[in-house]
Design goal:
This protein is α/β, with parallel strands linked by helices. The chain starts with a strand and ends with a strand. The strands form three sheets. It has a six-stranded antiparallel sheet with strand order 2-1-4-5-6-7. A six-stranded mixed sheet has the order 8-12-13-3-14-15, sandwiched between helices. It is globular, with a radius of gyration of 22 Å. The longest helix is centred in the middle third of the chain and has 39 residues. Helices cover about 45% and strands about 25% of the residues. The chain has two domains: about 170 residues, Rossmann fold (3-Layer(aba) Sandwich); about 180 residues, Glutathione S-transferase Yfyf (Class Pi), Chain A, domain 2, CATH 1.20.1050.90. Helix 5 packs across helix 6, helix 6 packs across helix 7 and helix 6 crosses helix 9. The structure holds adenosine-5'-diphosphate and magnesium ion (MG). Magnesium ion binds next to helix 1.
Length: about 375
């Protein structure tokens, strides 16, 4: 089991500089709105991944009127004790793993984190790109190879679009890029479909177990190209290259790529109906939460180790009945949890009160 032992931060958001020691199981942060609860969860997430779940501009994380910020976590996994540090200012981020400077690529994935924030409802209500980004990140977390393929694919896609825009498709190099484009696109599609198949089964089980055993929740991968679940990599590549041939004239006309996984979609289906258009607010929330639990299961499958789980503002999101089901379920699992809430909740192993950025441990 992965477990964060402690966190340290300097100049992070509104928080007073602090060193917190955590417990396995439930770690609760409670306090009124605007006190810094989300900021603590953000500090944990940021140190674990090098990214924030609230902003892409890290400068926003630095406490007002300060020039730099630093965070540190010590954690333990199957292999032993490890630590991660991020130091940054408005220009530069430095990542350290066990005291050694590393690139973000090396840093990312050392500790797996699943997060649930109220804004995650966007995964249902938002545009297809929200779901694409989510699943891309999830598969990347579970499979490093996917992360690298996707990164390379995005680079080639950009170059390919540039050539299309500048009408340089006759250059020899364009066809070399095109081969690489198709190979990477094929791998991405294959990986995504495999992931969808696996997480789809788990998602349905989780939804039924915790929220509603009278409904079926499905997840489907949608593309202009008719893929089949039985397709091999070669077959997928072939379909992509055939589709590119069909779209050639239009691609040249518009000046960008019209084929590839960057245009595919993911859909949640509750009893066969698109959740985005037909499900109630409560159902949407339950779907998203089940999805997050399924992510945990998928990470466990790939890494044989549970990730840590962060839940922001649970009390504002779920009614007391749903909240009870969720907490009861989580209690049974070997997982380290970081929860924030405006109310106190019954189950906890460690409890902190947050007031105006000041964190205080309350002894139970
Ligand atoms: N970079 C920053 N420096 C100082 N304060 C900040 C910074 N960014 C946000 N804040 C403030 O931190 C406070 C706490 O925010 P937040 O963690 O979201 O509270 P909570 O989750 O408890 O409602 C807010 O009042 C916000 O204005
Ligand atoms: Mg908050």
């Amino acid at each position: 089991m992965v477990e964060i032992k402690e966190i340290n931060f300097i100049n992070f958001r509104n928080l007073d500089d602090f060193n917190i020691k955590f417990e396995s199981g439930f770690n609760l942060f409670h306090g009124k709105n605007g006190q810094g609860k989300t900021s603590i969860l953000e500090a944990i997430y940021f140190t674990a991944t090098g990214k924030s779940f609230r902003t892409s501009k890290v400068v926003e994380l630095i406490k007002y009127n300060n020039a730099k910020c630093g965070t540190y976590i010590a954690f333990k996994d199957r292999e032993g004790e490890k630590n991660l540090t991020v130091k940054f200012n408005d220009k530069k981020k430095d990542y350290n793993f066990n005291g050694k400077k590393v690139s973000h690529e090396e840093f990312f994935g050392k500790i797996n984190v699943v997060i649930f924030i109220p804004e995650d409802i966007e995964l249902i209500t938002g545009s297809p790109s929200v779901r694409r980004k989510f699943f891309d990140e999830e598969i990347s977390q579970a499979q490093n190879e996917y992360y690298i393929n996707l990164k390379n694919y995005n680079k080639i896609l950009k170059i390919r679009n540039q050539y299309l825009k500048e009408k340089k498709t006759k250059e020899e190099i364009f066809s070399i890029y095109e081969n690489e484009f198709i190979t990477l696109a094929g791998k991405i599609v294959l990986n995504r479909m495999e992931y969808m198949k696996n997480i789809g089964i788990i998602l349905n089980l989780n939804y039924r177990k915790i929220f509603d055993d009278k409904k079926e929740l499905g997840l489907s991968y949608i593309s202009n190209i008719e893929y089949s679940r039985k397709d091999t990599l070669k077959e997928i590549e072939f379909k992509i290259s055939e589709e590119i041939k069909k779209q050639t004239l239009l691609e040249k006309k518009y000046g960008y790529s019209l084929v590839g996984p960057q245009r595919d979609e993911f859909k949640f289906l509750l009893d066969g109906k698109d959740a985005k258009s037909y499900s109630s607010q409560g159902e949407k929330k339950s779907i998203v939460f089940s999805l997050k639990l399924s992510e945990i299961d998928m990470i466990f499958r790939e890494k044989k180790e549970n990730p840590i789980f962060i839940i922001d503002d649970i009390s504002s999101y779920f009614d007391s009945n749903r909240k009870k089901n969720i907490l009861e379920y989580l209690k049974k699992r070997e997982i380290q949890l970081f929860i924030s809430s405006t109310e106190e909740i019954e189950i906890q192993n460690k409890k902190f009160k947050i007031e105006k950025g000041k964190i205080q441990e309350e002894f139970i």
